[in-house]
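Q: What does the assembly look like in three dimensions?
Context provided by user:
Components: two
Sequences:
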Amino acid sequence: MAATEKTIAQVEKLSGGYDAGFYTEIESEKAPKGLNEDIIRFISAKKKEPEWMLERRLKAYYHWLKMPEPDWAKVKFTPIDYQDAYYYAAPKSMENAPDTIDDVDPKLLDTYEKLGIPLREQEMLSGVKNRSAVAVDAVFDSISVATTFKKELKKYGIIFSSLSEAIQNHPELVKKYMGSVVPYSDNKHACLNSAVFTDGSFVYVPEGVRCPMELSTYFRINEMNTGQFERTLIIADKGSYVSYLEGCTAPMHDERQLHAAIVEVIAHEDAEVKYSTVQNWYPGDFNTGAGGIYNFVTKRGLCEGRNSKISWTQVETGSAITWKYPSCILKGDNSQGEFYSVAITNGYQQADTGTKMIHIGKNTKSRIISKGISAGHSDNTYRGVVKVMPGAENARNFTVCDSLLIGNDCGAHTVPYVESRNNTATLGHEATTSKISEDQLFYCMQRGISKEEAIALIVNGFAKEVLQHLPMEFAVEAQKLVAISLEGSIG
Amino acid sequence: MTTCLRILDRDALPTPKDEQWKYTHLGRALGARLLNVQPLAQQQILVHKTVGEICKEPEKIVWKGEAGNHYQSRFEIVLEDGAQATIVEFHEGEGAYWKNMSTEIVLGANARLNHIRIQKDSVDAVQTNMVHISMERDSHLNSFSINLGGKLTRHDIHAVLNGSGAQCQLNGVNLLKGQQHGDTTIIVEHVAPHCVSNQFYRSLLDDKAHGVFQGKVHVHRGAQKTDGYQLANTILLSPMAKMATKPELEIYADDVKCSHGTTTGALDEEPLFYLRSRGLNESQARMLLIQAFIDEVIGKITDSSIQTRIKDMVAEWLKKQLN
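A: Here is the predicted structure of the complete assembly.
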């Protein structure tokens, strides 16, 4: 491509707003609208699940009925009508699970292609896409469409599959770990997920194995009025390492859609898990705030063994409402938790996100770097907890959370809770809120950079500390995403 | 007042559900005996300075407490435009009592108030103190509060900066030991532009003391050029002490400079080592460092004689606790 064409394409891309907003015309099979015991039995039957799984689902469902909505987050929305949504939707063509990728409906493959996620291993390996190998589990509405590089990974003993398959093939692992970090009674959204979860990814990395490639899941909501309830379970056995990525998009629909997910990560002795998210759900209409995804996610990692490490990196640009607190329970001695986050809100978006670091073991360390950027009429809140239990000797925490405001109609809030019950622990917290300085802007513009580009440049610099923790190719994507999300926020 | 009591009867005291994060167990601290005592007739003290009145000498006001009593007190400080004053508020008493106070501070345009609050209530007493501050254009408040006594104390400050150019300094020191529970909750609302607010609190917790610091800077839409700062540092002297900190920012204007910082931990080893290498013994070195830690806040008091007096109080407390 000639340089000029490239520039034109880039500019078009930048001005296109939410470019993942297309809808794929596909015949799909849905569960009847609403939520009741029958629906749960329907989902469980669809997945051909064993009896114990159904029991767990029903237990969660009955508990959910009694649970109150969490109300402490700084987000406002009309109450959710749980009966006005579909809890299961799957493309018809997937009814008889295709054996190979060639049997998968080309329309589905095209959807992922369009989103820049090639599912054909051949292409990826032959370098057509010019990307390094990344194993992908593609989830479309309620089911997993394809999981790539399974065979390759099997050589190392790594299990990477959809959760539905894992329930069939590795029930002992699922039974043991699922719900061990996020119990079904944790909060209303997690409880709903425990009752109606449909698909998601399952990763098991055996002892001493360093996963040779990035594992990733790409979530796509396509149907109108459906909720997506995926569940991810990652287990890193002793001395193993895995890096996992998650991406998500949805078409532009006028109705609000619910996405309530659970992610559980377990790291045993000396294991390390790196979990990165690029969240780009449809944020709703830019000018009115109509539509968009309610993103209510419970993510939690357990550093079970000594010297284990869990690191969360997230780039949050989408969703009408984000309610998400990826957390670490630092139980093993010397374990480490990290949280790097960039949350950008524009239009009428609301984000309440942060982390919880619970120090239980000795010499545990945690680090929180959070950057919030708000523009338009949006509200962006950092809410975090650092808790040191009496036994956590020499625990260390360092927190920085900075906010940037662009425009006069938005809000930026910081709500850190710091609780120390051990006097050998050292906790530090810093936060600032500011705007882009006129001097910086003036300097860039005087060098011939347009105002919009200058803002993107400055914001990317502001967020760099976080973006550099993303795997390389995602970092590039994320930088573009930052620029796109802020579009229209000035001038 | 009877209506107030009726409301208290109806809504009762806050429950853990109302204050999930930092519950102040007032009912337990008061015990059935004090809770049911009829309050003494309302005690009221009013300090009023008229336009341009300048009082050079500090004015001292003493709030006493006697065992078995329940006080509903009201303290008002009103400084009209351009007035200046220094008020020293002193709390003391004996035995178990409940002092429930409402303090109102109103500063007119260009008024200057130095407010020093020394809380040395008896170790069995409970003090709940709600402070409302409203500040007009270019007024200055320099407030310092030291908490030494009380089984349970709760100091809620709600400052509203209504006029542009107002400057609000809220500084404090909490020295808690035994089973004391000390809570400082601050909300500063920047309504007008070009205001400055500063919160600087340092705490020392020994034995099984429980400290709480919650500070919030709320910048309203339109309050541009706000400069808000919060700093809360705590040193835990004993393994059983507990500190909960929550510095909050809620900001709706884009051209502002707001920041906060908190630290919680033990005394730093390195300066300790340095001092010991210079020939100080361990307790001397610790004493020196802790004193320096606290003195930094005390230094914010403008009146030097009051400064010295408070420094002495701190030294006395430290001598008892560290040796």
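Follow-up: The CA atoms of residues 116 and 254 of chain A lie 25 Å apart.
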